[in-house]
Amino acid sequence: MKPFTYERAATPAEAAKAVAARPDAKFIAGGTNLLDLMKLQIETPAHLVDVNGLDLDRIEETPEGGLRIGALVRNTDLAADMRVRRDYGVLSRAILAGASGQLRNRATTAGNLLQRTRCPYFYDPGQPCNKRRPGSGCAAIGGFSRPLGVIGTSGACIATNPGDMAVALRVLDAVVETVAPEGGTRRIPVAEFHKLPGETPQVENALAPGELVTAVTLPKPAGGKQIYRKVRDRASYAFALVSVAAIIQRDGSGRVAFGGVAPKPWRVEAAEADLPRGARPTAAAVFAGANPTRDNAFKLKLAERTLEAVLTEARS
Ligand code: SF4
């Protein structure tokens, strides 16, 4: 690990200002992804701004009937919150499907949204990777691509977003709240938070330099049957090959988002109109324009079958 300096921020705006002041500075909260990346020297910040002391660790009810989840709420606490379990079951289930108990105790809401891809070549400094070193190439294209993306990818990067929580937030229409270095605030729909790679796969989200996530807001409960199903190579502590977050109403209508298939949680609202008519047309519409590799084309069939299983469960 490279040496770095360290400070503790007293307010969100102060933290944002401190990170914006230096291009080599980063926020640190739970550190469950960042510290691994620093040990491998994939991330080499020269300065860390610790945000753990900020007053951002509460879950509060909003005047609109939803919930405002502080950026520092730990994944374990969020999944266990009675209001989340009762009204946003898909979120609770998605969080519990991710990582391990120890990691969830430490990982934060904002950090979970910001975690980086688990593409194996991204973690191997000896390999070309446009996300780690822009312009160096992509070892995954033509290499081992089984766990990687089938849609939303580009000729520069085919990595997936590894999150579970983010897939649930996408189907819940969550909004990310931020503070900028000069103190201004923003609300970013989670649908617009993660970016597709295009020619700049190193740009992974909509945050400006120094902009700090302060909370995630959930709208009032959507009701319905809420399911998160994750298909992976082993039963725990593994990333999704395919996951499905779904909220299905009594009449069969609903919302569906997929994880493990794209550089961001993948949801196509237009395809949801097909839901009452059955799963197959929906899966076909969601994955229209997919560009899988030879190694990961199976994900399209897996996604279709996982969706069918989720809909069968929801309608039972
Ligand atoms: Fe890097 Fe993306 Fe290629 Fe993986 S898929 S090697 S993260 S550029």
Please name the defining characteristics of this protein.
316 residues, alpha+beta, 5-stranded antiparallel β-sheet, 3-stranded parallel β-sheet, 27% helix, binds iron/sulfur cluster
Question: Can you walk through the features of this model?
Answer:
The structure is a single chain. By secondary structure, the protein is an alpha+beta fold. It is built from eleven helices and eleven strands. The strands form three sheets. A five-stranded antiparallel β-sheet has the order 4-5-8-6-7. Strands 1-3-2 form a three-stranded parallel β-sheet, with helices on one face. A hairpin with a 5-residue loop joins strand 10 and strand 11. Helix 10 crosses helix 11. The longest helix is centred in the C-terminal third of the chain and has 18 residues. It starts with a strand and ends with a helix. The structure holds iron/sulfur cluster.
List the helices and strands and how they pair.
Elements: E1 5-8, H1 12-20, E2 25-28, H2 34-39, E3 47-50, E4 59-61, E5 67-70, H3 75-80, H4 82-87, H5 89-96, H6 101-106, H7 109-114, H8 165-171, E6 175-179, E7 185-189, H9 190-193, E8 212-218, E9 225-231, E10 242-248, E11 254-259, H10 279-286, H11 298-315
Parallel strand pairs: 1-3, 2-3
Antiparallel strand pairs: 4-5, 5-8, 6-7, 6-8, 9-10, 10-11
Helix pairs in contact: 5-8, 10-11
This protein binds iron/sulfur cluster.
The site of iron/sulfur cluster has 15 residues, from loops.
